[in-house]
Design a protein that fits this description.
Strand order of the largest sheet: 1-2-3-5-4
CATH superfamily: Nucleic acid-binding proteins
Number of domains: 1
Largest sheet: 5 strands, mixed, barrel
Order of helices and strands: EEEEE
Number of strands: 5
Structural class: mainly beta
Distance between the termini: 52 Å
CATH class: Mainly Beta
């Protein structure tokens, strides 16, 4: 029989990122900016790199400025490959 695998037992676990919502103009989609701190290969200075992720927001309940946790998922559209796990902090 085939073994059942859960999300925690995947051979290649899905990526999880935390970021800030920067746009909610689209229907059921939000844009989340994820900032990474990496060391420059030559100068050894810490620099910030920002990636924008297109996130599936089924209920359209996210607002600009919210801090969210997102998880990688199968392609949902041409550019959308992430979904919202939970809202960490609401914008004021």
């Amino acid at each position: 029989m085939a073994e059942e695998t859960t999300a925690t037992e995947r051979a290649n676990p899905r990526k999880i990122r935390e970021g800030t919502v920067v746009s909610t103009s689209m229907d059921k989609t939000a844009v989340v900016a994820v900032t990474d701190r990496v060391r420059h290969p030559r100068y050894n200075k810490t620099v910030q790199r920002t990636n924008k992720l297109y996130v599936h927001d089924e209920t359209n309940d996210l607002n600009v400025g919210d801090k969210v946790r997102v998880q990688e998922t199968r392609p949902l559209s041409k550019t959308k490959r992430w979904r919202v796990l939970d809202v960490l902090e609401r914008a004021r």
